[in-house]
Design brief:
The chain has 194 residues and is mostly helical. The chain is 74% helix and 0% strand. The protein has 9 helices and no strands. The relative contact order is 0.13. The mean pLDDT is 92.
């Protein structure tokens, strides 16, 4: 959660991301998100006049960009370093929350839509996953992986890490992260010249 000196809109978005990461989207009301962010409900509707889906979409994008910033920085040292940072970030989140928080992007992605239309938050989750995959694939290509292999390995990394975070929460253990890290590192080494 950002500090109270953070602008109110950003505090609400970050609070929503945190709530969604813990309880999922369906189990979290806009009132609870506002309360969690220590923001008046009225200002929540002021900043997000379209309601819960708008706020959830912003929370997913906020998380996506926050993770992407860290990935971009770490990927400068190569895909292995990027993977380590990606795994370390999620390890910190699950451990610091005592295994109560996971990834809000995944939480939104696994929710059943109310109707046949793709809700904005689900579309935002797809965009975030694509962004993370693109960053990883570009780094893999830069370090010698063939284009198709880089794309497939990037998808595998994101899928494995997201699934591993869910497993850590269920098992109340970081062991799934350790196992996943070892195998993904081996795949990166085999695919690149690093």
């Amino acid at each position: 959660m950002p500090k109270s000196s953070t602008p109110p809109r950003e505090r609400i978005v970050a609070g929503a991301a945190d709530m969604i990461s813990r309880r999922g989207l369906s189990a979290t009301s806009i009132r609870e998100m506002a309360k969690h962010a220590k923001a008046p409900l009225g200002s929540t509707y002021h900043y997000f006049p379209e309601g819960k889906q708008q706020l959830a979409s912003e929370a997913v994008r906020y998380t996506g960009e926050w993770v992407a910033r860290g990935l971009r920085k770490e990927l400068e040292a190569g895909p292995a370093a990027g993977l380590r940072a990606f795994l370390d970030l999620w390890r910190k989140i699950v451990v610091d929350s005592d295994f109560h928080a996971g990834c809000p992007v995944l939480a939104v992605a696994i929710e059943e839509p109310q109707d046949d239309e793709v809700p904005p938050a689900l579309a935002a989750a797809a965009e975030v996953f694509e962004q993370w995959e693109a960053l990883l694939a570009a780094s893999l290509r830069e370090h010698g992986a063939a284009a198709e292999q880089a794309t497939q390995l990037a998808t595998l990394i994101v899928a494995a890490v997201e699934g591993t975070v869910a497993m850590c929460r269920a098992k109340r253990s970081t062991q799934p992260l350790d196992h996943t890290a070892e195998q993904l590192q081996a795949l990166i080494v085999a695919a690149t010249r690093d």
